[in-house]
């Protein structure tokens, strides 16, 4: 028992030791795993912190459409919460715009299915932030099969910097292009030389001046604008500018376009070491100086012939020039004027011959006139001398001289007196006019006639006060049917007086009178107002308007009558058709061959008359009637319409072709009306096409409109018939079959197309067939 106990104890100790070792190893492994987990947790927290602070934020899109994104990215997008799906990136007034969201969804789908990478710029709504999105299929390590990983980078500053640099670059390019264009378009020769003074660039004016082919030819041949070469010749100016770094100017002769000219050469040194230059043709300047001299001589010759006296004094106050009228006015002799007398001596000479006004203190008066030389502006006086009235104007000259003008106004004063008499005649004339006339000056009523006073019923005391325009308008308002229209009168006067524009309007008085008011600007700055009585005209216009209303009512009654008659005609027509069918079917006994032909003709005529009645009812009832809105496939509607016309076409051995380009698609509208539209167009084309002809129905369209085209190879229509093709009940002449058509098909088609918001057009020429085009909006 003791030995067994010892063995058991050893075994138990071994097991216990093994358990202790295993527990120690487990504890060590657990502590090691815990340390690794803590390390991974710290690494994950550090990576999350780096991700949060980084310039790029990720977005993971799973295969089922769910997304994972950090809150910071939601903040960038302006979202108040993190969405669970990709569609949640676009919200009302927040997140991506609907267009950006749709584009992003397409890129994500392409990345998930085909692994296609993409880059796009996204701008959140209501923010100035710009986000660069870079997307690709999610890596396999992320264990998201068919997923997509998107990185969002805040590129706001980069976009702004790029935009700023782009603007600066565009401005610099524009400035460079403008400068280049300016140099090229400059009328003067311009050039650029290198540091060795060789030509590197010239403009078109330079090429024309040296008679070269183009700029490259001139540079290659080194053609100089001025003859001679070397540093001792024309290039000396450019060499001095290059060496001294200062602009140089020199005048040299040159042959330009085969003519000898004097040029002023300007050479400007550049920081690059080269020299830019341009040449100014001073030949014309010299000619202008000569011309100016000749002009002065001609001007003096002209002044010598004017009726007013002219005297010019130089800066030294000596007499430089005087005309013959001056000599006559003041009895000046040529011998005395040849010595260029001084201003004071001229005044004294005038006094000696009694050509000056009587003054008590002549020295003081003379000193005051001497100040005319330094006056800031022209001085004007009136002299009364020996029964004549002289207007004197003293104009200081910029170079320090003085110009005196003497005008005899004696005759002018006589004319003013005569003008006063004419004013009286004008007043009497205005009083006798049948129109109301008034003249306004400086915002006041200045002149009026008796008719004006009678039209408005103003008191004489009121008009004699020359009321201002606002006061006159206020007094006129109670006399009008609409008192607010009185402001129109004031506006017309102001426009004529200030804006110098003629305007007109009409006003109605409370007592039923009507007047056309016209305001006309006068040459003296005033405004003339005329009032023409148009009461009778308005009465006649009112009568015509009432008559037009009556005619429209009669037209509505006519339309209602046609519609009612069409309904009434259907009842006997139905009976005729029924009995004819019974006769044709043999219910009244077997018919002869001729009788059958007669009944068939009756049935044909009944069907034709029924169709005409249906067209009349459509034309009178469909106008303004609401359309049914549904999804209409145009190909099906066209086939149904063509099938209904097929028998009519085959009866005339006409080839009816339906051509569908596959792009007609569908529109929203009334299927019955659209089918009837196509049927009417086909019926019109078949009726107008001779036997063994061809009618084509073509369908196509684009994203905006669907198009229906019906064409035939018939004889076409005249311009007059084309103009009336869409008129209701218009007689279009005799058709090829010899029958006169009422023309209801085309008007109905036009009515149905326009009811759908579409457009119909008919093109036809005699001998070339007819083509009708219908465009229906999607």
From TrEMBL:
Location of the Histidine kinase domain: 564-778
EC number, as in UniProt: 2.7.13.3
PROSITE patterns the record matches: HIS_KIN
Pfam families (UniProt xref): HATPase_c, HisKA, PAS_7
Catalytic activity: ATP + protein L-histidine = ADP + protein N-phospho-L-histidine
SUPFAM superfamilies, alphabetized: ATPase domain of HSP90 chaperone/DNA topoisomerase II/histidine kinase (SSF55874), Homodimeric domain of signal transducing histidine kinase (SSF47384), PYP-like sensor domain (PAS domain) (SSF55785)
Gene3D superfamilies referenced in this protein's UniProt entry, alphabetically: 1.10.287.130, Histidine kinase-like ATPase, C-terminal domain (3.30.565.10), PAS domain (3.30.450.20)
NADP listed as a keyword: no
Protein name per UniProt: histidine kinase
Source organism: Sphingomonas xinjiangensis
Organismal lineage: Bacteria, Pseudomonadati, Pseudomonadota, Alphaproteobacteria, Sphingomonadales
């Amino acid at each position: 028992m003791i030995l067994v106990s010892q063995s058991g104890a050893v075994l138990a100790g071994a097991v216990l030791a093994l358990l202790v070792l295993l527990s120690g190893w487990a504890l060590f492994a657990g502590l090691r795993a815990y340390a690794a987990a803590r390390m991974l947790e710290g690494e994950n927290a550090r990576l999350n912190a780096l991700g949060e602070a980084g310039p790029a934020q990720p977005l993971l899109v799973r295969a089922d459409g769910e997304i994972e994104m950090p809150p910071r990215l939601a903040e960038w997008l302006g979202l108040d919460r993190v969405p669970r799906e990709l569609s949640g990136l676009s919200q009302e007034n927040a997140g991506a715009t609907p267009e950006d969201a749709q584009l992003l969804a397409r890129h994500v789908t392409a990345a998930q299915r085909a692994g296609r990478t993409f880059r796009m710029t996204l701008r959140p709504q209501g923010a100035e932030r710009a986000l660069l999105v870079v997307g690709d299929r999610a890596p396999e390590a992320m264990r998201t099969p068919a997923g997509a990983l998107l990185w969002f980078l805040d590129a706001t500053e980069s976009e702004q910097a790029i935009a700023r640099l782009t603007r600066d670059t565009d401005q610099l390019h524009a400035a460079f292009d403008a400068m280049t264009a300016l140099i090229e378009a400059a009328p003067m020769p311009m050039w650029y030389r290198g540091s060795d003074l060789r030509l590197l660039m010239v403009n078109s004016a330079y090429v024309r001046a040296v008679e070269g082919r183009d700029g490259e030819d001139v540079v290659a041949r080194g053609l100089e604008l001025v003859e001679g070469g070397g540093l001792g010749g024309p290039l000396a100016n450019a060499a001095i500018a290059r060496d001294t770094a200062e602009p140089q100017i020199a005048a040299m002769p040159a042959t330009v376009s085969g003519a000898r000219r004097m040029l002023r050469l300007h050479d400007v040194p550049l920081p690059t070491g080269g020299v830019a230059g341009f040449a100014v043709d001073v030949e014309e300047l010299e000619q202008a100086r000569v011309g100016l001299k000749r002009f002065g001589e001609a001007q003096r010759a002209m002044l010598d012939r004017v009726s007013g006296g002219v005297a010019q004094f130089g800066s030294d106050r000596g007499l430089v020039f005087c005309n013959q009228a001056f000599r006559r006015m003041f009895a000046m002799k040529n011998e005395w004027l040849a010595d260029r007398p001084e201003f004071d001596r001229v005044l004294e000479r005038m006094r000696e011959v009694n050509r000056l006004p009587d003054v008590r203190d002549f020295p003081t008066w003379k000193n005051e006139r001497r100040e005319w030389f330094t006056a800031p502006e022209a001085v004007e006086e009136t002299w009364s001398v020996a029964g004549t009235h002289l207007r004197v104007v003293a104009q200081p000259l910029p170079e320090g001289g003085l110009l005196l003008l003497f005008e005899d106004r004696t005759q002018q004063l006589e004319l003013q007196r005569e003008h006063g008499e004419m004013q009286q005649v004008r007043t009497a004339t205005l009083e006798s006019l049948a129109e109301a006339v008034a003249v306004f000056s400086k915002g006041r009523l200045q002149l009026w006639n008796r008719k004006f006073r009678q039209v408005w019923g103003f008191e004489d005391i009121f008009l004699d006060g020359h009321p201002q325009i606002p006061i006159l308008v206020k007094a006129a308002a109670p006399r009008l049917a609409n008192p607010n229209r009185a402001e129109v009168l004031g506006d017309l006067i102001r426009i004529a007086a200030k804006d110098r524009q003629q305007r007109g309007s009409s006003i109605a008085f409370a007592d039923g009178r009507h007047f056309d008011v016209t305001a006309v600007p006068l040459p003296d700055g005033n405004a003339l107002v005329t009032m023409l009585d148009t009461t009778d005209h308005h009465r006649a216009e009112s009568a015509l308007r009432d008559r037009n209303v009556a005619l429209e009512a009669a037209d509505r009654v006519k339309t209602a009558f046609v519609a009612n008659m069409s309904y009434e005609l259907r009842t006997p027509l139905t009976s005729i058709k029924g009995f004819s069918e019974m006769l044709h079917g043999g219910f009244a006994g077997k018919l002869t061959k001729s009788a059958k032909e007669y009944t068939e003709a009756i049935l044909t005529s009944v069907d034709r008359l029924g169709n005409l009645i249906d067209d009349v009812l459509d034309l009178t009832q469909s106008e303004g009637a609401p359309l049914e809105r549904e999804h209409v496939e145009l190909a099906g509607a066209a086939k149904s319409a063509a099938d209904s016309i097929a028998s009519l076409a085959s009866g005339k051995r006409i080839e009816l072709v339906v051509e569908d380009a596959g792009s007609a698609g569908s529109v929203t509208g009334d299927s019955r009306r659209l089918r009837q539209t196509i049927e009417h167009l086909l019926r019109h084309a078949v009726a107008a096409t001779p036997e063994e002809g061809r009618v084509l129905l073509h369908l196509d369209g684009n994203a905006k409109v669907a198009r229906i085209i019906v064409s035939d190879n018939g004889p076409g229509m005249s311009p007059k018939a084309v103009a009336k093709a869409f008129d209701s009940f218009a007689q279009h002449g005799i058709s090829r079959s010899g029958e006169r058509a009422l023309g209801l098909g085309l008007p109905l088609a036009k009515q149905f197309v326009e009811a759908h918001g579409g457009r119909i057009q008919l093109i036809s020429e005699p001998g070339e067939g007819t083509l009708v085009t219908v465009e229906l909006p999607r």
